[in-house]
Amino acid sequence: MIAELGYIAFAADVFGERRIMPNPAEAMPVTKSYRENPTKLRARATAAFDTLLKQAGVDAQRIAAMGYCFGGTTSLELARTGADLAAAVSFHGTLASAAPVDRPGVIKASVLACTGADDPVIPPAQVVAFQEEMTKAKVDFQILVLGGALHGFSNPDADNIPLDSVAYNAKADRRSWAALLNLFSEAFA
Fold first, then answer.
1. What residues contact 94, with CB distance under 8 A and at least 6 apart?
2. I want to staple 86 with a disulfide (CB 3.0 to 4.6 A). Which of 9, 82, 165, 187 is the partner?
3. CB-CB neighbours of 75 under 10 Å
4. CB 45 within 8 A of CB 37
5. Edge to edge, what strands does the sheet with 110-116 contain?
6. pTM (two decimals)
7. Contacts of 33 (CB under 8 A, 6+ apart)
């Protein structure tokens, strides 16, 4: 969808070895290990960012990181490194970090975090803590809390995942995508 809008799209292989984990029971311990070790996650995200910068046609002044679930978490962690991003977007990604930014000037990106109001994976306390982190770091940020939305709200296949905390929500999907497009129009102007 990003490429169809005329952007260069680059998908990072954060886990390595083209590993795909469609089973939540397999994925959760792996993603947890990265969330508990943000240095490792940030190094992987930075390596992907550096690879993107070397691609033909990439405008280094107009780069955004975006992702869904763990990809959203990864986008936020890349922003926390101080990478030269115009924007960082998370769709139902974990907002908490084991190494939050505690000073202004580190995060250069405009940040958009889209989360479900009913998502037990990203509870309200985590949203508040993220807001406090972004405020303290003086980041240009938005948090879009989508009513009635659970985790995975933007994934049309989410209803096939055998977890009560996950469900597709078409309205939340449309609204969050519109927020991304709006942020891109601002960040890339």
1. 35, 70, 72, 73, 121, 122, 126
2. 187
3. 29
4. no
5. 64-68, 87-91, 110-116, 141-146
6. 0.93
7. 40
